[in-house]
Amino acid sequence: MTRVVLAEDGTLLREGLVGLLGRLGFDVAAAVGDADALIAAVEEYDPDLVVTDIRMPPGFSDEGLRAACQLRAQRPLPVVALSQYVERSYAEELLDSAGGRAVGYLLKDRVVDVEEFGQALRTVVGGGTLIDPEVVRQLMRRSDPLDRLTPREREVLALLAEGDSNLAIADKLTVTEAAVNKHVGNILAKLDLPPSTDSNRRVLAVLTWLRRRD
């Protein structure tokens, strides 16, 4: 079973998540209520996955996010930030850590399917990257577009960030799917992410845009 350390300051929600994770087949080694306890539990239990809230005691600002970044700086520990908020401070650092692999940022009120939530956690444990589109949108609002990209490529990248398929993008932009495929290839090349079979490359392209500013 996948061993999990859970950090959530709300007692009722924490206990509810413990039960939910157990039903989904995860082994919750520890469930804690603050960032210091999270770091201590990871050191003690060496989990396969950390699921953490972002705003926790004592300051209720970004303690969980900072703790996650600290843990990821030590080793590429799979981490899923599960929050009601998009906390911009440290968010890019977390999503950029370990090459953007084995990390997720999900919003609590947008998790509507239990089985999909379980699959999302397994994806991150397996090295995948999952970011709620709303998180991407809010982070992108303060980012400067890269001069390398044409206006059309920026449109395509924005739709990629929202999780649209190439076919859906073609429909929205009233172009052919082949044209979108070409734009995506150009974006990946311009952002030094050459085409591959890596399922994370579309997300990595968005993260590259977010972190590379003038």
From TrEMBL:
Transmembrane segments: none annotated. Keywords: DNA-binding, Phosphoprotein, Transcription, Transcription regulation. SMART domains: HTH_LUXR, REC. The keyword DNA-binding applies. The keyword Transferase does not apply. PROSITE patterns: HTH_LUXR_2 (PS50043), RESPONSE_REGULATORY (PS50110). The modification 4-aspartylphosphate is found at residue 53. Residues 3-123 form the Response regulatory domain. It comes from the Bacteria. Residues 142-212 form the HTH luxR-type domain. CDD domains: LuxR_C_like. This is Response regulator transcription factor.
